[in-house]
Amino acid sequence: MRLPRFDYLGPDTLEGALAFLAIHRDDARILAGGTDLLVRMKKGLLSPKTLISLKALELAYIKKETIDGRDCLVIGAKTPISDIIASDLVQKHAPALATACKKIGAITLQHFAGTIGGNILQDNRCQHYNQSDFHRSGRQACHKDGGKICYAKDESDRCNSTCQSDGATALMALNAGIILAKKGGKRQVDLADFYTNDGIMPFACEPDELLTQIILPVQDGYSAYKRLAYRSAIDYPIVCAGVLLTLSKSSESKINGARIVVGAMGRSPLYMAAASTSLKGKNFDDTDAFQQAAKAAMDNAATFAVHNLGSTLEYRCSMAEEMVFQALNKAVAAHQSMEKLKTKA
Length: 345
Ligand SMILES: Cc1cc2nc3c(=O)[nH]c(=O)nc-3n(C[C@H](O)[C@H](O)[C@H](O)COP(=O)(O)OP(=O)(O)OC[C@H]3O[C@@H](n4cnc5c(N)ncnc54)[C@H](O)[C@@H]3O)c2cc1C
Ligand code: SF4
Description:
Blueprint: E1 7-9, H1 14-24, E2 28-31, H2 37-42, E3 50-53, E4 62-67, E5 70-76, H3 81-86, H4 88-93, H5 95-103, H6 107-112, H7 116-121, H8 133-137, H9 166-173, E6 177-182, E7 185-190, E8 210-217, E9 221-228, E10 239-247, E11 255-263, E12 270-271, H10 273-277, H11 287-302, H12 313-344
Parallel strand pairs: 1-3, 2-3
Antiparallel strand pairs: 4-5, 5-8, 6-7, 6-8, 9-10, 10-11, 11-12
Bound molecules: flavin-adenine dinucleotide and iron/sulfur cluster (SF4).
């Protein structure tokens, strides 16, 4: 498989990149690590006329800042996955993200190319679509390929491709915001509001916008991430879950708030509002409440998932419940070890 021809632009500054994007818009794509983009181009799923490289831009950093009076982790969009895994700040304040990043692809991908921005903005996937040109040419085109049918869901009028981003699932659980810049301005959006209802273009992003930063509020609580894949390395998740449990100010044994997000089951990571709310005020050791929340999350995720990632839908749904339950227990275990440390001190 060969790459199609394209023009390569290598701006030195963010302003330069935004100016190029403003000119080329839909004809251009941003090139970060290229581990998603170049594979898609080789398969003939995409042939942008121009690639705008982030190579020379200073968008790789992880720092702690106070924003609007609140401590936040600020992560540049071009930060390599390996830097996030190694970061003390991320391990301390956002362990769910560190774990999710450890699971992305393989060590080579994490160390040499893959970035967190590219991880969030990687295209949705589907076993009927992520195939070679040759494979796809033997059958009618589906919605995402410019046709009018969906192989994953009968009579669907839209594409139901699946977001398999480990990073985005963990970041949504951590209540992340993202900064999108364009020529002459920028805006901040909650990651949870960044998705459309259509797998053809899953992101609510303009063609001239560039993701520059991810902002994570530092939470007084515990986060965790669990995922299932065919193999532990190289494979994308077939279901995953990120959770955050925050502490009550009056009693450290009670949950003040929870965020449960299920990934690889829908067109975006799925924030489970009802399951999350059900844990407010519960004790950290209330296993029954966790089991019920995990079941509610599975029931909700099942309404979005389609059969397009290989294993059966029934299996993925039952494992969604398991992943949520395990992630909640992992967050509780972190809370318990911290309590033990405090007692010893
Ligand atoms: C074998 C293999 C296994 C993989 N396994 C996993 C996995 O387990 N989990 C997982 O989550 N991912 C996986 N991936 C997908 C991908 O490699 C990673 O998500 C990686 O982090 C993508 O980052 P990148 O910098 O290479 O993105 P790129 O390929 O450079 O970009 C991806 C998309 O995002 C856009 N983009 C990138 N940065 C920006 C920006 N700052 N602003 C605007 N648009 C931008 C690009 O235009 C492109 O459309 C896998 C890929 C491969 C090839
Ligand atoms: S979900 Fe349907 S339309 Fe979307 S890529 Fe798969 S088969 Fe195509």
